[in-house]
Amino acid sequence: MNLSDPLRELLGFIGQYLSLGVIGLRYGVLGRALGRPDADAPRTTILTIASRRAAGVGLVGMLLATGLLAAGIARVMAERHLALATILTAGQGETGVRLVLAALAIVGFLLALARVPAGWPLAGFATVAAALVNILSLHWQTLVNPVHVLAGSLWIGTLFVLMTIAVPAVLGSDQTHEDKALTIADLINAFSPLALISVAVLVLSGVVTAVRHLKFVAALWTTSYGIALVVKLCVVAIVLALGAWNWRRVRPSLGTHAASAKIQRSARLELAFAGLVLLITSVLVSLPSPRLPK
Length: 294
Hints:
With 294 residues, the protein is mainly alpha-helical. Helices cover 81% and strands 0% of the residues.
């Protein structure tokens, strides 16, 4: 394993988590908050500003992911001496389709930045479709990993963008302290259902992925892949515990300035451990899967 392998994987995860997290924020959080019948003009303005700022983050994430995809295509062309058309049309043309969808997502985010109404639907469709393009192979096994990454992105990626874009937009607004606290409470409550569904899918797909790659139980302590997986699972357990604490204990108390500050602190801790999970996962996916003993 070269150092460049986990680094490339980590950058890929960051690109996906940012772009998909922005889509989760726009449709799973801000969309619900903006669609409330009691949403007043000041709050709508704040959330619209947050939405536009998030589009910029989504654009950065998608440009990063697309750059890595293009670099990977160039690397395969050089190593295997293949023509670009051959790579783009191989199999079910998944690489070519992913490249087209990535380009459409970039256009969508640019349109969203320019406040063009069609921008967000285009970015949302293309970003999610690009993440799940392996469905073209018609083999469910190839879809498990993309679904796992999608679920993680809609949980941790959305939480990251929520805490770095939406919440600061609220705190920097002209609302009263009470209104700011209530707006943040609405955003966290809107995020909770998305987070719960994403965690359920993440755990299920993670179990399936682990079983597929481990092949035998002893691999957990006899192979580098298994040891890395155990370390990852331990840190994941911490992230899940922090998420459960935020959902069960901190979220119900929201609506005050003190509670808003508390959820920000606990969310930052959750994100810090989640970042460690991504780092470990980048190493894990760069390691060879264990082989059955002879």
